[in-house]
Design brief:
The protein is mainly alpha-helical and about 240 residues long. The protein has one domain (about 15-230). Helix content is about 50%, strand content about 5%. It has helices at about 10-15, 15-20, 30-35, 60-70, 75-85, 90-110, 115-130, 135-160, 165-170, 175, 225-230; strands spanning about 190-195, 200-205, 215-220.
C-alpha cells in the first residue's frame, strides 16, 4: 500500500457509528435518506402496518429469515427481520436490529453502494457487540461481519492509494477518513462468487482506473442461529 495513506484501525473509523447506535434520536430512515443513491433502496426501510403482520405464519419466522440471509436474498431477509423486530422486546430487539442492518449492508455492497454498506454493517456490528456474546452462533456471526468490515475498509484504502490525487486527500484527518466508501462509488468493485466447497466469497476485483489493485477476498457471512437460540435471550442477557 502507498505510504501516502496512513494506517488506522477499522474500529477507530467506525467509532462515529458506535455513537449513533447509542443515540436516543437515531433513526435508520435518516441514514437511508442520507446514503441511498437509488430511490428503490428506501423501500428497505418501510414500516409494516400491524395488520400486515401475522405471528403464526412461516413467512415471518426467524428461521425463514436465516434461510434467506444464507441464500443471499438480503432484501427479503430484511423484510422478515423488520417484521420480527417490530413485535419483539429487548434484548431480542437489539439482536434482530443488528442482524437487519447487516442484511441491508450486504445488500448495499452487492449494489455498488460501498459507503452505505460500511455504515450499515458498522451499525449492525455495534448492536451485536452490545450483547457481549461470549460464544454461540451470534458471536460467530459478529466475527464474520467484522471480517467483512475490515475487508471493505482495507480495500477502500487500496483504492485511495491508486492515484496521487486521492492520496493527497487521505491526509490522516478525520475528514479524510470520512471519504472512505466513496472511492469507486457506483462501480462494481465487489463480486459475490461461489466456490466448489459451497462457500461463497466477496471478491475485490477493481477495473479500469483501479486495475492495478490486487484481487483479494473475504468469506460471505453466514448465520447459523435458530429461532430457539434467539428466544434464549428473551429474559436474560
Amino acid at each position: 500500500m502507498s505510504k501516502g495513506v496512513p494506517k488506522r484501525d477499522v474500529n477507530l473509523f467506525l467509532k462515529e457509528y458506535d455513537v449513533l447506535c447509542d443515540s436516543q434520536t437515531y433513526h435508520d430512515e435518516q441514514v437511508c435518506d442520507a446514503l441511498s443513491t437509488h430511490s428503490g433502496l428506501r423501500t428497505l426501510y418501510r414500516r409494516w402496518e400491524s395488520d400486515e403482520l401475522s405471528d403464526d405464519t412461516d413467512d415471518f419466522k426467524f428461521d425463514r429469515a436465516v434461510l434467506l440471509f444464507n441464500s443471499r436474498d438480503y432484501y427479503q431477509c430484511h423484510d422478515i427481520l423488520e417484521a420480527i423486530w417490530n413485535r419483539v422486546e429487548e434484548p431480542q430487539r437489539t439482536i434482530v436490529h443488528g442482524l437487519l442492518q447487516c442484511a441491508v449492508g450486504l445488500y448495499h455492497l452487492a449494489n455498488q453502494n460501498h459507503r452505505g454498506a460500511m455504515m450499515e454493517l458498522g451499525e449492525g456490528r455495534c448492536k451485536l457487540r452490545k450483547m457481549n456474546f461470549r460464544s454461540g452462533p451470534f458471536q460467530q456471526f459478529e466475527k464474520e461481519i467484522s471480517a467483512v468490515l475490515d475487508f471493505i475498509y482495507e480495500t477502500q484504502l487500496e483504492l485511495a492509494a491508486c492515484t496521487d490525487d486521492l492520496c493527497l486527500r487521505m491526509d490522516g484527518s478525520d475528514r479524510s477518513y470520512q471519504l472512505l466508501g466513496s472511492f469507486g462509488a457506483g462501480q462494481k468493485l465487489y463480486e459475490f462468487e461461489h466456490e466448489s466447497d459451497n462457500a461463497c466469497y466477496i471478491n475485490f476485483e477493481p477495473e479500469g482506473l483501479y486495475s492495478s489493485v490486487k484481487t483479494t477476498r473475504v468469506k460471505v457471512p453466514l448465520l447459523h442461529a435458530t429461532e430457539e437460540q434467539l428466544k434464549a435471550y428473551e429474559y436474560d442477557c
